[in-house]
Amino acid sequence: MSTVKLSLSDAYDLALECLLHNGCNRENAEAVAGRMIQAEADRCYSHGLFRMPWYVSGVKSGRVNGHASPTVERLAPGVLRMDGDGGYAPLGHRVGQAPLMACAREQGIAALAYVNMFHIAALWPETEALAEEGFCAFAFTGSYPYVAPAGGKSPLFGTNPMGFAWPRKDRPPLVFDQASAAMARGEIQIAARDGHSVPETAGIGPDGETTTDPNVVLKGAQLGFGGYKGASLAMMIELLAGPLIGEFLSIESQQDDGGLKGPPKGGELILALDPARFGAPDEYLERGERLFHAVLDQEGTRLPGDRRHASRAETRHSGIELPARLHREIQDLMA
Amino acid sequence: MSTVKLSLSDAYDLALECLLHNGCNRENAEAVAGRMIQAEADRCYSHGLFRMPWYVSGVKSGRVNGHASPTVERLAPGVLRMDGDGGYAPLGHRVGQAPLMACAREQGIAALAYVNMFHIAALWPETEALAEEGFCAFAFTGSYPYVAPAGGKSPLFGTNPMGFAWPRKDRPPLVFDQASAAMARGEIQIAARDGHSVPETAGIGPDGETTTDPNVVLKGAQLGFGGYKGASLAMMIELLAGPLIGEFLSIESQQDDGGLKGPPKGGELILALDPARFGAPDEYLERGERLFHAVLDQEGTRLPGDRRHASRAETRHSGIELPARLHREIQDLMA
Question: What gap in Å lies between CA B300 and CA A4, rounded to an integer?
C-alpha cells in the first residue's frame, strides 16, 4: 500500500483546511481536526483521517451543523447539560470540559449530558482529558442498532461503548474505552472486505445462528461481549445516553438518519468524580498504583491504553503514514 | 434432597432468632435477616440462608461487629461516606438509603461510599431499592482475589460485581447485578462438588492454560467475562470500591482476613442519579419502556431480573423450601 508521510502538525493542517473548505467554521474545524489527529497519533485509525469523507458528507448533506455553537446549562447542582447545536461532538467536548470539571470540584461528583451532537466516536479522549486533570471519569454513548439483545436475533442496541479513566501518579491516566459488542463494527467490516472469518462470539446471522462469516453477521446482528452480560451493559448504556438525558435510542437515531447512513446523532453521558472528595485524598493515587503494579507483576499483562501511549510517544517524532488513496481523497475534497 | 417448607415470615423469624442468639443486636439482626430472606424470596440461594453459618462464624470470631452502629458523613455536596462500624453490610444499606436519596434529589447525582463493612454480597437489593424510589443507580464492590488480569495467570481482582437499576413505569425496576468474572465463584464450587465441567471461558489452571475442570480453576484463576473486557471492568470496580474510597483492594481484603476465610471486609460505591433532573423529566420513563418493549418484541428475550420477579411472586404465597440439613444446621447454631 502506497503511503504519504506527514508530521502530526502537517496532518492537523490538512484536516483543518479540509474541514474549513467544507462548511465548518474555524472553531468547529479546529475541534474536529484536533480529535482526528489525536486518534492518528494514538494509531486509532478508525477514528482518524479515515473519517474525513464521512464527516464532510455529513456537513454537506445539511444534517450536521458546521457552525455549531454548543451551550451549557446547569440543570441541578451536580448536573450539566450541553446542547451541541447539531454539530460534531469534539467542539462540544472542548466547550464542556471546563464547566464539568468546575462542577465536579465543587460537588465531588458531577454529570454532563451531551445532547444534539453528531458522531460521539471514541470515548477515551474526553475521559482521558478529565483524568489528566485529576478526575475519575466515565463516559457512555449509543450509536446505530447493531447488537441483538440477549436471546434475540435482531440488532437493537448500538455497539455502545463505555469509557473509564483513572488518574495516575506522574504517568498518563489509566483509560479504557470498550464497546459492549464482542467486536467493533469496523473490525467485522474489515474482515468481510479481506475475506477473513470472525470468532463465533462476534455475532449471528439473520436466522439467529452463530456464524464465523462476517458478511452473515453484517446481515444479522452483533452480540454483546461475554454473551448476555455484554448485552446488559449495552442496554444500560442505551438508557444512560438516551432516555435519561432526553436523547435518541440507537434505533431512533437510525430512524432519524433516514437511510443516509451518515454520522449518528445522539447523546453522551459523562460522569466526573473528584477523588480528593471521597474520603481518601492522600491515599487514592498510591493505592491505585498498588493495583497497577500487581497487574504488571504478572507476566503477559499490560494495562489498557499502554499501546496507545506507546504509539503516541512514537508518532510525536515519526509522524504518521497516511494511505496515499486517503490522502488524495482528502485533497480532492478541497479541489 | 429432604427439605423443610417455611413461609417467608417463618424463615425471617428463624434467621432473626439465629442472629440474635449469635452476637447480633436487634438492629443488625433484622437488617441481615431481612436481606437473607429477600434473597430466598427471589431464589438467589447463594445469598440466602445458606450464608448463615458463615455469617455467624464471622461474628463469633470477633472479626465482625454484631452491634455495629453505622454513621453517615457528608464529604462534599454530592458525596456521602458511611462507616459501617465493622458490621455486616445490610444495616449500612438500610441506614444509608435515605440520606443518599435526599442528597441525589438535591444534587441531581450523588455518591455514597460504604467503608468498613463486611460481605457486601448481591448488589441488586440496594440498587433496586433506589430505583423503586425513582432513581437510576449503580453499585460496585470487590471481594477476595479470584480473577486474573488480562494476560495474567494469578488471581488478583475480586469477582467484582456491578449492579445497575432503572425505574420503570408501573412495574418493578429493571435491575441487573453481574460479576465481572465469567462465572460466579459459587457456580464453580458447585460444579467441582458435583463433578461437572465448566466452560473453557470460566478460568485457567495454575499453569495459565484454559481448562474445563472446576477443581483446576479453583487452584488457578477465574477469568473476566468476554476475556479482557470483563477484566477491564473488574479493574475499574477494584478502583471504585477500593482506592477511590479509601478501602481495600481485593488482595488487601484477603490479607486482612488472615487466612480465616471469613466474610470479606471492604467497600462499596453507590451512585444515585435522579432522572427527573437530567433534562427529560417527562420522557425518560416512556423512552425506557420503548427500549424494553423493543427487547421483548424479539422472540427468546427476557429482561434482566425477570426470573427474580417471577420467583418473588411465587414465594410470596408458596414460601420457600430449605434443605433439611441447612435447617438443622441453623437450629444447631441456636442450641
Answer: 50
Report chain A (335 residues): mean pLDDT per 10 consecutive residues. 95 98 98 97 92 95 97 98 97 97 98 95 94 98 95 96 96 96 88 93 95 97 95 98 97 93 93 98 97 97 95 97 96 95
CA distance B142 to B180: 10
Q: Which of A255, A273, A293 is the best residue to mutate to test the B interface, defined by the most B CB atoms within 10 Å of its own CB? A: A273
Residue whose cell numbers read 455497539 = A159
Distance from the B175 Cα atom to the nearest Cα atom in chain A, whole angstroms: 10
Task: Kindly determine whether residue A278 and residue B151, on different chains, have CB atoms separated by under 8 Å.
Answer: no
**DSSP label at residue B100:** H
Q: Give rounded-to-5 percent helix, strand, coil for chain B.
A: 45, 20, 35
| Chain A interface test: which of B153, B249, B298, B306 (most A C-beta within 10 Å) | B298
Closest C-alpha to A255, from B168, B290, B280, B167: B290
- The answer to whether the CB atoms of A111 and B238 lie below 8 A apart is no
Query: Which residue from B75, B226, B247 is facing A230, i.e. has the nearest CB?
Result: B226
| Grid cell listed for A87 | 454539530
Sheet containing A265-273: give its strands across.
A71-76, A79-88, A109-118, A265-273, A136-141, A161-168, A171-179
Q: Catalogue the long-range contacts made by B82-86 (C-beta closer than 8 Å, 24 or more residues apart).
A: B82/B112, B82/B113, B82/B114, B82/B115, B83/B115, B83/B116, B84/B114, B84/B115, B84/B116, B84/B117, B84/B118, B85/B116, B86/B116, B86/B117, B86/B118, B86/B265
* ipTM here: 0.96
CA dist., res. B105 & res. B187, Å (int):
39
Q: Which helix (H) or strand (E) holds A129?
A: helix A124-132
> Which residues have C-beta within 8 Å of that of residue B219, sequence separation ≥ 6?
B205, B206
B contact test, residue of A71, A72, A79 with most B CBs within 10 A: A79
Q: Which DSSP string do the residues of B194-245 spell out, in sequence order?
A: HT----TTSEE-TTS-B-S-HHHHHHSEE-BTTTHHHHHHHHHHHHHHTGGG
State the nearest Cα–Cα gap between A207 and chain B, in angstroms.
12
Q: B177 vs A179, A228, B80, B145, CA distance in Å?
A: 19, 12, 22, 19
Are B81 and B92 in contact by the 8 Å Cβ rule? The answer is no
Q: Do A244 and B283 touch (CB under 8 A)?
A: no
**Burial class of B20 by CB neighbour count within 10 A (0 to 12, 13 to 18, 19+):** middle
In angstroms, the separation between the Cα of residue B142 and the nearest Cα of chain A is 13
Instruction: Determine how β-strand A79-88 pairs with β-strand A109-118.
Output: parallel
Distance from CA of B29 to the nearest CA of A (A): 28
**Of A314, A263, A248, nearest in space to A68 by CA:** A263
pLDDT computed for residue A184 by the predictor: 85
Cβ of B151 within 8 Å of Cβ of A301? The answer is yes
pTM, two decimals, is 0.97
Can you give the pLDDT at residue A274? 98
- Closest alpha carbon within chain A to B179: A229
Q: Which residues pair with A210 in a beta bridge?
A: A204
How many other CB atoms are found less than 10 A from the CB of residue B268? Answer: 30
pLDDT tens figures, B17-50: 999 999 999 999 999 999 999 999 999 988 899 9
Which of A151, A246, A249 is facing B280, going by the closest CB pair?
A: A246
How many beta carbons lie within 10 A of that of residue A335, not counting itself? Answer: 5
Alpha carbon distance, N-terminus to C-terminus of chain A: 24
Helix (H) or strand (E) holding B311: helix B306-318
